[in-house]
Amino acid sequence: MSKKVILWIVVSLIFLGTGKAFSQAPKTASAKATAAETVQEISLTADIAPSKQVQVMSKVSGTLEEIFVELGDKVEKNQVIAKIDSKDIALQVKQAEAALISAQVNYRKAKSLVKIQAETNFKKAEAAFNAAQAQLNMVKATTRTEFFTGLEQAQAGLKITQANLAKAKEGAREEEIQRSEAAYQQALANFHNAQRDLQRAEDDYNRGAIPEQVLDKTKLGFEIAQSQLTSAEASVNLIKKGARKEDIQMAEAQVQQATSVLENLEKLKEAKSWEVKIQGTQAQWENARSALELVKASWEDKLWEGDVQLTKAQVQQAQAALELTKSHLEDCTIKSPISGIIGGKLADEGSLVGPGVPLVSIVDISSLKVVLHIGEENLDKISLTKKVVVNIENYLNRAFTPQEINISPTMDPRSRKIKVEVKIPNPDLRIKPGMFARIKLILGEEK
Fold first, then answer.
1. Model pTM score
2. Range(s) within the chain of domains with CATH label 2.40.30.170
3. CA distances from 155 to 86, 149, 168, 264, 265 (A)
4. Which tens digits make up the pLDDT trace of 97-117?
């Protein structure tokens, strides 16, 4: 065998068997052209990364009771891997359940009672307005008449007392005695009637059946009847007995009293005092009308439904609070978000953890990402990759069919390289993330 043939065989064995002929810098190699096709290769170095890597974190605050996994353990998605003390949160759930029940009771009560209460308030306001209207009509119709009736009675009373005084001074005739006795009997009957009227009015007022104005009117009638009776009685006595000095003085005092009453009434007449009562009653009527309009508007606009909606919203709020606390209770049981292998325990049992505190890390290495950095001259060729040959010195040299090829849309301005991730299967889990590998990208297949 010639020396040239032997040299060629040695070089080929070194290149194909050990992989040490791979260059650290990317290069493109072209195989010899055959009649069928030319195979192209790109050789370069790469980092190995897991296809998925997550840190499982706590969502709630509490004491880490147990961790059920160890470094290197395989876990399935949704497998329980840790537990946080949940006693306090369980109590919060019970409190939220009680709050929800209370809100539901208030809501049911509001639906059944609020409308009835609003209707009752409307009817009460309507009745109060009708009563105020009737009172106003009565006061308008009677107050002025009653005042002038009282004024006329006071004028008559003054005339009687004046006549009595004159008779006391002059002496009386038989017919005068008879008239005075008849006047006394009439005054006595009027007094008894006024006394009964006053008693009934006081009883009605105490029961709330009549307003104060009616009671005042009855009192005035009683006082006038009492004054007339006193005058009539004095007149009879004077006429029968004849006037004594003290009788004349009494008659003069009665004249003065009757004069004072009449003068006061004349002043009230000038001031139109009856209109004050009308104005007061009018104000009460207006207040009743305003209250009725307010309640009526509330009833017609169904504002009472707002109270029902408020209690309904409180039920919804209590439901949301209960769901939130239940969610926190569920979060005390930590589950794996992916299937994979425990890559690290980041917290110890008994430690106090809170939201965002990592507990364990999990990696999925059933497939791996081969992370490359290529120059722009090879960018268009990457998508043609048919095979990926992974060489880890003294450990592994194997070809894989790529599952995905993902190319960064940007170039690193410092290295002038573009990041590429090639996803490959790792069925026997021999390749570990973090390993340094030499990679050969096969861009075609020999035929």
1. 0.50
2. 23-85+337-442
3. 96, 10, 20, 12, 10
4. 999 999 999 888 877 776 667
